[in-house]
């Protein structure tokens, strides 16, 4: 049920972002992936659309449905829209942003199990290094506050909302 709701949210967000970037002439679409998340076997993708000459909107998703063994399991699913303000042009140089993130997680080791949902919000920062005609390398970081809905009672916790080294392809 929650997965269907998240998929519908992703689809509606993508349509809205594509229609918002329709009038721009320069670079207006980029696709990227966070290479650091592959270290924990978590496939991910981010689609980013330029809204104006300084603003972009992105939608990020990751999933890790793996059971490593009978004694150890880490699975999660995350979705995160983010607004970015680029100091020069979209997909080039410094940016400051704000992101929202929703994650569902399930961690199991030995006989301990932690599962729950977390919703977070916070500022982000990144820098886009141009490494090729259509390729960028984007280190990024974000901190914020999250509401953890583990075992029913919500708790407010400080959280790293974003940490990555993205490989980005500027499509057009």
Radius of gyration: 17 Å
Contiguous runs where pLDDT drops below 50 for at least 5 residues: none
Indicate the structural class: mainly beta
CATH architecture: Beta Barrel
CATH top-level class: Mainly Beta
**Largest β-sheet summary:** 8 strands, antiparallel, barrel
Shape: globular
Question: Could you give the order of strands across the largest sheet?
Answer: 1-2-3-4-5-6-7-8
Count of individual helical segments? 1
Written overview of the protein:
With 172 residues, the chain is mostly beta strands. It has a single domain, classed as Porin (Beta Barrel). It has one helix and eight strands. It has an eight-stranded antiparallel β-barrel. The longest helix is centred in the N-terminal third of the chain and has 19 residues. The radius of gyration is 17 Å and the shape is globular. It starts with a helix and ends with a strand.
Quick gist of this model?
The chain is mainly beta and 172 residues long. The protein has one helix at residues 2-20; strands at residues 29-34, 44-50, 55-67, 72-86, 93-109, 112-130, 135-148, 155-170.
């Amino acid at each position: 049920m929650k997965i269907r709701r998240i998929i519908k949210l992703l689809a509606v967000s993508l349509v809205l972002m594509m229609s918002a970037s329709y009038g721009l002439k320069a670079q207006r679409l980029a696709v990227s992936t966070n290479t650091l998340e592959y270290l924990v076997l978590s496939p991910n993708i981010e689609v980013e659309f330029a809204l104006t000459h300084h603003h972009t909107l992105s939608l990020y998703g990751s999933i890790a449905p793996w059971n490593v063994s009978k004694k150890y399991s880490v699975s999660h699913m995350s979705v995160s829209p983010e607004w970015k303000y680029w100091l020069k042009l979209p997909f080039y140089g410094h940016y400051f942003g704000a992101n929202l993130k929703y994650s569902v997680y399930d961690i199991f080791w030995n006989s301990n199990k932690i599962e729950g949902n977390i919703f977070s919000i916070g500022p982000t920062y990144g820098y886009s290094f141009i490494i090729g005609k259509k390729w960028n390398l984007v280190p990024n970081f974000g901190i914020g506050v999250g509401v953890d809905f583990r075992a029913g009672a919500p708790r407010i916790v400080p959280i790293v909302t974003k940490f990555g080294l993205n490989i980005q392809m500027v499509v057009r």
